[in-house]
Amino acid sequence: MADMTIKSVGVVRSDIQNPSLAARSGDLHWDGKGPAGSHQSERVSEIAVHADYAGILDGIEEFSHLLVLYWADRVPDEARTYTRVHPMGRKDMPLVGVFATCSPARPNPVLVIAVRLLERRGMTLRVAGLDAVDGSPVIDIKPYLPPYYAVTDARLSGWMKRLLDEMAQR
């Protein structure tokens, strides 16, 4: 396997201080306090892009939504070896492969989320809907392009449909 180097392009500034979904003892555990994957479309956060990337954000304010890729840096090394988990730590859900989930416990804890861009101030982006913990390294930002990312005929597993329905009712 090839070694790769990923550099942080910025950092998340958020009121989320600790992950609500943690990896320990071979599975996921939800602390019951945070969103645990629920829609956080109104949560406002900032992405502070490193100053040495001057010019990298030029033109981004013309987009309403962005894809933010960030590193779940609080995932312990042991959790990066998990191959199967209960989605969101719920034992009433099937034990499935990590790649069938959005779990932060994965070989490379890269997470992605679509956010609404509220404002650009210099090298800082104010966004809504970012579920990242304060201090999380941002590894990439892309414009959200509906023709590329909006799939109209996507199929979901039964357990995922159930989770999404439950979260929508909160």
Mean pLDDT: 89
Number of domains: 1
Q: Rough shape? A: globular
CATH superfamily: YaeB-like
Radius of gyration: 17 Å
Number of strands: 10
* Sheet with the most strands, sense and barrel status: 6 strands, antiparallel, barrel
- Per DSSP, the total helix count is 2
CATH topology: Elongation Factor Tu (Ef-tu), domain 3
Spatial separation of the terminal alpha carbons: 43 Å
Structural class: mainly beta
Strand content: 25-35%
- Helix content range: under 10%
Low-confidence stretches: none
SSE order, one letter for each helix or strand: EEEEEEEEEEHH
Strand order of the largest sheet: 1-4-9-8-5-10
CATH architecture: Beta Barrel
Q: Key features?
A:
mainly beta, Elongation Factor Tu (Ef-tu), domain 3, two-stranded antiparallel ribbon
Structural commentary:
This protein is 9% helix and 31% strand. The protein contains 2 helices and 10 strands; from the N terminus they run E-E-E-E-E-E-E-E-E-E-H-H. It has helices at 146-149, 158-168, and strands at 10-13, 21-24, 27-30, 44-49, 65-71, 84-85, 96-97, 110-121, 124-128, 137-143. The protein is mainly beta and 170 residues long. The strands form 3 sheets. It has a 6-stranded antiparallel beta barrel. The protein has one domain (10-147, 156-168): YaeB-like (Elongation Factor Tu (Ef-tu), domain 3). A hairpin with a 2-residue loop joins strand 2 and strand 3 (27-30).
What is the compact description of this entry?
This protein has 170 residues and is mainly beta. It has two helices and ten strands, in the order E-E-E-E-E-E-E-E-E-E-H-H.
